[in-house]
Amino acid sequence: MKKTSQFFFLHVTILVLALSFVMSKAAALYMSQNGMFSLPCILSLMAYVVLTVIYAAAWQYNLENYELSFLYTNRCFYMIWSQIFAVAIFQETLYHNNIIGLILIFIGVWVNSKDV
User: Fold this and answer.
1) How far apart are alpha carbons 103 and 56 in whole angstroms?
2) Lowest-pLDDT range, 9-18, 38-47, 54-63, 77-86?
3) Model confidence, pTM
4) Residue 71 φ then ψ, to 5°
5) Are 104 and 77 in contact (CB under 8 A)?
6) Which residues contact 59 (CB under 8 A, 6 or more apart)?
């Protein structure tokens, strides 16, 4: 049970990383539309910083529980979250090549995680 909760925490950590990238992109969009000192831009940048700090602390915790090679393999999972957020939040297009790449990432993470 402990390994399952640690693995779940690892993937929540990766989700936080993907959310920080979303906030970074949102801040860039707000900056280009409304300027650097607009309230949405400042709030997005603050959310980015907070999420990045949370990610860094959680990553240190994960380093205590897993080997670095395993963590970096699973860190690739943020690409899947990023594509989901790109389509859901930013209305970007998901192409066939993107889907094939995401499937390959998922398979790679799954194969590497079977021993955990």
Assistant:
1) 27
2) 77-86
3) 0.84
4) -65, -45
5) no
6) 13, 71
Q: How many CB atoms lie within 10 A of CB 44?
A: 21
Whether the Cβ atoms of residue 27 and residue 48 lie closer than 8 Å to each other: yes
pLDDT at 44: 96
Percent of the chain with pLDDT over 90: 64
Rg (CA), the chain: 16
Residue type, 14: I
- 115 has pLDDT over 80: no
Q: Is the pLDDT of residue 114 over 90?
A: no
What secondary structure, in 3-state letters, does the chain show? CHHHHHHHHHHHHHHHHHHHHHHHHHHHHHHHHHCCCCHHHHHHHHHHHHHHHHHHHHHHHHHHHCCHHHHHHHHCCHHHHHHHHHHHCCCCCCCHHHHHHHHHHHHHHHHHHCCC
